[in-house]
């Protein structure tokens, strides 16, 4: 019993101390000092009130029309995972899309000519779906996006070298007609 007390009490105290330390979520609210008001020595003088002017209408800044010319979103070989360089392109697309959230878009997925046509078609749809997931996570409705997979059928560059194949692994965002 004595050994139990000897080990049990420090363990309980240690747990209690750790629990109390982690519960210090309450922070003191910094109170801003009240603003100092200077009282001026005002003398009573009779002055005629100025005629009130009608407030000038505030000019609203014109909202720039959205620019839907997006760059292609590129992918690695045999992958539907977004490249880190594509995040900046997608962030710009999100900013433009938020100007008019009612517009519908088509996400056209493409792939290079490596692999079977069936695999490339599946891969192009998966790539378009990963872009759609990014845009839905950014706050858009999934109903605003439709997916089309083109596989290797519409290359923008030659598939004979690696640079051309890299450009063909892409998703294009187009306004739905």
3D structure, described in words:
- This protein has 177 residues and is an alpha+beta fold.
- It has a domain at 73-175: 60s Ribosomal Protein L30, Chain: A.
- 36% of the residues lie in helices and 10% in strands.
- The protein has four helices and four strands, in the order αβαβαβαβ.
- The chain has helices at 2-22, 84-97, 117-137, 162-168; strands at 73-74, 105-109, 145-149, 170-175.
- It has a four-stranded mixed β-sheet with strand order 1-4-2-3.
- The protein is flat, with a radius of gyration of 32 Å.
- 19% of the residues are buried.
Under CATH, the topology of the domain at 73-175 can be stated as 60s Ribosomal Protein L30, Chain: A
Q: How does CATH name the architecture of the domain at 73-175?
A: 2-Layer Sandwich
- In terms of quaternary structure, the protein is single chain
Helix fraction by DSSP (H/I, runs of at least 4): 25-40%
Look at the structure and name the CATH superfamily of the domain at 73-175: OmpA-like domain
Order of helices and strands: HEHEHEHE
Average pLDDT works out at 79
Euclidean distance between termini CA atoms = 82 Å
Decide which structural class fits the backbone. alpha+beta
């Amino acid at each position: 019993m004595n050994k139990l007390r000897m080990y049990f009490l420090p363990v309980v105290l240690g747990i209690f101390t750790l629990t109390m330390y982690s519960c210090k979520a309450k922070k003191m609210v910094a109170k801003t000092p009240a603003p100092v008001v200077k009282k001026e020595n005002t003398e009573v003088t009779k002055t005629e009130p100025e005629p009130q002017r009608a407030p000038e209408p505030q000019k609203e800044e014109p909202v720039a029309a959205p620019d839907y010319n997006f760059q292609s979103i590129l992918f690695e070989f045999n992958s539907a995972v977004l490249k880190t360089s594509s995040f900046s392109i997608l962030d710009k697309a999100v900013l433009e899309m938020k100007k008019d959230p009612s517009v519908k878009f088509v996400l056209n997925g493409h792939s290079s000519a490596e692999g079977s046509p069936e695999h490339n078609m599946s891969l192009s749809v998966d790539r378009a779906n990963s872009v759609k997931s990014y845009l839905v996570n950014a706050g858009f409705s999934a109903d605003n996006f439709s997916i089309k997979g083109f596989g290797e059928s519409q290359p923008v560059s030659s598939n004979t070298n690696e640079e051309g194949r890299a450009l063909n692994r892409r998703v294009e965002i187009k306004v739905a007609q």
